[in-house]
């Protein structure tokens, strides 16, 4: 009698994949072997994902969706200034990543190329930039007073590059509760907002001093 196979949903497959790579420090050799080990039909895997590359991208999308769900539960968020909306986005994303730090480090360091290889973040990047643009579009104050001269795609791309910069810092941060990453987030967001307003030089110097100090420690 043929043993009945497990029927798993996308989240269950993701959980099994993350457990496998963290336990073995490698990607499964094939979809076939992965399904055999988890007693599921290949057809069930392919009903959710086209490949392991697809799984890896969706994991990062899930990270963003989890952060977005936390933000959406904050009924005060729509009343925040643009600066505080960006701070909330960055802080919340890193809270989610911290809960999954082992996988994030595997994802970005396990390929031996680190942040040079960001293909796992392609869909995450789309969600991130789209959310930043919604912050701009909902702007009701003068937080981004100079945005008339800067296109939304350019600004959202700048926010993305800045997020990558902080991500690299966080990956190397060994401070308790990653408190130094929190400092970098605050100083970086201040720089973004001030660059669009009146005090770019002071913020750049402040951020530069902090990073130089950390580099020398």
Q: How would you sum up this structure, described in words?
A:
It is a single chain. With 217 residues, the chain is mostly helical. It folds into two domains: 10-46; 60-216. It has ten helices and no strands. It has helices at 10-24, 31-37, 42-46, 52-72, 82-99, 101-109, 122-137, 152-172, 179-195, 200-216. The chain starts with 9 loop residues before the first helix and ends with a helix. The model is unreliable at 198-202 (pLDDT under 50).
Q: What proportion strand? A: under 5%
H/E series = HHHHHHHHHH
Q: How far apart are the termini? A: 65 Å
Shape: globular
Structural domains: how many: 2
Q: How many helices does DSSP assign?
A: 10
Unreliable residue stretches: 198-202
Largest sheet properties: none
- Please give the radius of gyration in angstroms: 20 Å
Structural class: mainly alpha
Overall mean pLDDT score?
83
Kindly state the number of beta strands.
0
As a percent range, the share of helical residues equals 55-70%
The oligomeric state of the chains shown is single chain
Explain the layout of strands and helices:
Layout: H1 10-24, H2 31-37, H3 42-46, H4 52-72, H5 82-99, H6 101-109, H7 122-137, H8 152-172, H9 179-195, H10 200-216
Helix pairs in contact: 4-5, 4-7, 5-9, 7-8, 8-9, 9-10
């Amino acid at each position: 009698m043929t043993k009945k196979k497990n029927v798993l949903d996308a989240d269950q497959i993701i959980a099994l994949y993350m457990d496998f790579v963290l336990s073995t420090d490698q990607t499964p050799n094939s979809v076939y072997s992965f399904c055999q080990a988890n007693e599921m039909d290949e057809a069930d895997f392919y009903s959710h994902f086209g490949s392991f590359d697809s799984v890896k991208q969706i994991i990062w999308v899930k990270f963003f969706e989890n952060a977005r769900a936390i933000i959406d539960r904050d009924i005060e968020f729509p009343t925040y200034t643009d600066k505080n909306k960006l701070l909330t986005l960055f802080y919340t994303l890193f809270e989610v990543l911290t809960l999954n730090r082992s996988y994030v480090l595997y994802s970005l360091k396990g390929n031996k190329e680190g942040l040079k290889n960001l293909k796992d973040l392609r869909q995450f990047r789309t969600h991130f930039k789209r959310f930043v643009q919604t912050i701009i579009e909902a702007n009701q104050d003068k937080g981004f007073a100079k945005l008339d001269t800067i296109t939304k795609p350019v600004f959202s791309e700048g926010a993305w590059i800045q997020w990558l910069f902080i991500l690299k810092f966080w990956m190397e941060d060994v401070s308790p509760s990653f408190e130094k990453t929190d400092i970098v987030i605050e100083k970086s967001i201040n720089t973004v907002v001030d660059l669009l307003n009146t005090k770019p030089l002071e913020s750049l110097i402040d951020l530069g001093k902090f990073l130089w100090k950390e580099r020398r420690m």
